[in-house]
Amino acid sequence: MIGKSATSRKILLLAPLLLFLGLAYVVPFLGVVRWSFTLPEPGVGQYRSLFTDPLVQSVFIRTLRICLVVTAASLVMAYAIAYVWVRGSSVQRMLAEFCILVPFWISVLTRAFGWLAMLSNRGLINTWLQSAGIIGEPLALARNELGVIIGMTHFLIPFAVFPIASAMRSIDERVLLAARGMGASRTRIFWTVFVPLTYGGLIGAALIVFVFALGFFVTPAILGGGRSVMVAELVYLRIFQSPDWGLGAAISVVLVLFIGILLALMRRFIKPAHLVG
C-alpha cells in the first residue's frame, strides 16, 4: 500500500514534465509524421524518395561519414584528456578541468565563427604559414568537410570526456597493482588491462558523440559553406527554402527513429549518472 502511494506521488510529480514534453515534442512530431505521409499527396512516396533520390542519399552518406570521423577523433582526444583528468597530478587535473569546462561557456555559433577565422583562406593559420614561407597558396581548411570535422570535433570532445572519465574512475586499483606485481610493463598494463576496463565508457561516449553529431546544423552550415550539407541542414532547406515539406518531414522522421535506436543502445551500455563523470 505504501509502495503504491509512493508510486502515485512520483507520477504526480512527473505529470507536469510529461505534459510539457508531450505538448512541446510529441504533438509537433506527430504533425511532422502526418506531413511525411500526406504532402504533396497521400502515400509513402516521400519515403520511397529516400532510397531513390541521389541527392538525399549523398547527404545521408556524407552525414554518416562525417559523424564516424568526428566520433573517432573525439574519442581519441577525449580519452587522453580524461586520462590526465583522472590520473594526472593536481595541476594537470586542474588544467584538464579548465579545458573541459570552458567550452561549455562559449556558444556553438561563437566557436564556429572562431574556427572560420582560424581556418579560412585569409585566416590566422594560412596567413602565418604564408608569412613564414612554408606554403605559397592558402590551404583549403574551411568551406569543406575538413573544416566541418574540425569544428564538430572541438565542440563534442567535452561530451565524450565524462563517460570515459567515469569508466576510468570505476577501475579497481588493485587490478592494476596485481598486473604490475606480475611483472607487466606500464605500456602492456595500459593496453591489455586499463583500456579494456574502460570499454563501457568508450561505447557510451561514442554513442553520445554520434547522436549529437547527427543533428548538427550551425557548425556544418558555417564551416561547410554550403558544400558539405548534412541531414539537419537538408531538412531546413526542404522545409524553409523549397516547397518540398513532405520529403523534409520524411527525412526528419527517419532521423528521429535512427536516433531513438541509438539512444536505446546508449542506455544499454551506460547509466545516465555516468554521463556527468
List SSEs in N-to-C order: HHHHHHHHHHHHH
Instruction: Tell me, briefly, the overall form.
Output: globular
State the name of the first-level CATH class. Answer: Mainly Alpha
| Fourth-tier CATH superfamily name | MetI-like
* Mean of all residue-level pLDDT scores: 87
Q: Roughly how much helix do the residues carry, as a percent range?
A: over 70%
Instruction: Tally the structural domains.
Output: 1
Helix count? 13
Amino-to-carboxy terminus distance: 37 Å
Classify the beta-strand content into a percent band. Answer: under 5%
In total, the number of strands is 0
Radius of gyration, taken over Cα atoms and rounded to an integer in Å: 23 Å
Structural class estimated from helices and strands? mainly alpha
Largest sheet properties = none
Secondary structure layout plus pairing:
Elements: H1 2-38, H2 45-52, H3 54-87, H4 90-101, H5 108-119, H6 124-131, H7 145-169, H8 173-181, H9 186-197, H10 199-214, H11 218-223, H12 231-240, H13 245-269
Helix pairs in contact: 1-13, 2-13, 3-4, 3-7, 3-10, 5-7, 7-10, 8-9, 10-13, 12-13
Characterization of the model:
Keywords: Cell membrane, Membrane, Transmembrane, Transmembrane helix, Transport. InterPro entries: MetI-like, MetI-like_sf. It is found in: Cell membrane. By secondary structure, the chain is mainly α. It has a single domain (45-270), classed as Orthogonal Bundle (MetI-like fold). It is built from 13 helices and no strands. It is globular, with a radius of gyration of 23 Å. 29% of the residues are buried.
